[in-house]
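Reopening: DNA replication and repair protein RecF still failing for me.
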Amino acid sequence: MRLDSVRLSHYRNYESLELSFSEKTNVLIGENAQGKTNLLEAIYVLALAKSHRTTHDKELIQWDAEAARVEGRVHKRRGDHSQEITISSRGKKAKLNHLEQRRLSDYVGALNIVLFAPEDLHIVKGSPQIRRRFLDMEIGQVSPVYLHELSQYLKVLKQRNALLKQLSMKGGDETFLDVLTEQMITLAVKIVQRRHHFIAQLEKWARPIHEGISRGQEKLVLIYRSDTFSNDLLDVEGMTASYTQKFGKIKENEIRRGVTLFGPHRDDFEMEVNGRNVQTYGSQGQQRTAALSLKLAEIELIHEEVGEYPLLLLDDVLSELDDHRQTHLLDTMQQKVQTILTTTSVDGIAHETIKQAKLFHVKQGAVILEETSYKEIVGEKTDE
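Support: Ran it again with your exact input. Result attached.
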């Protein structure tokens, strides 16, 4: 699949912008704070209906504007379609082929993307919350039903926490707590099973990629961590029994503390390199390799699940990678996927992928020069 064009209206520092992209590699060149990342973010929002940089949607709307809009034209094997996301103080509206979607879970997945940014290193070394968000966003792209189940789980969790807080302060009948617990267990089992499947598929692709980048010296293993059951107990009956037993044991403690103490919202996944936790014991180079391997594996996983390669967004990551890792990434781009990347300069990047790219210059929320050749940028002489 590919994104043929995008149109922005009152999005961050873009009052109005319309661009058409190459089906291969597109490079946004400009100094910092000019709008390169804002454009990538807009494409991310177009695909996933939320930003990877903020949880406050109002930050996406240009100052003094009432609403921000991002529109795109997407090409897939089964045909082209349009997408549109509008963000205002009243919320979000998402449209496919001009038809408003009742649920965002019906919208997400029409355009699949993989984003790789410097902050993605935090997937490896950051908090469990970051890794859970990574899982939820990526699974949601290939499994819309997962987003619906997760949304339902979070609603029940919110109700349950409110009731636990009430019981901790005032006491009362616990019958409704038992009802909510049963509902949460049913949803938790579905969520964790889907996460386990995703982790297994991601590892299948990430392991050989990681071995290639590390020149065969390192073996990557991904492990889902839950304090409720072991990873060899994944059938519905066994998981349901484990959750039921655990909730029964800590019910009084939860009421006393006024909060749900375990569940998918507190789970994590771990990365091991040669048997050692890379989050805790890995060098920065090993952590970078693990993060890059996960992102390249995502590309293959999405292709396997939906039958088409996703759009790849790279936000100023080439400067963060050494030549060896950079080559692995650029080779993947050249062979398979439409890519939109940002950089302050293409100087020193001699890979054919960049030499053949469509180049855009970004300055103060505008594209001021388009389709300049690589040779003109770096000062090489063109052939007569």
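The CA atoms of residues 121 and 288 lie 6 Å apart. If you still see a failure, please send the error message rather than a screenshot.
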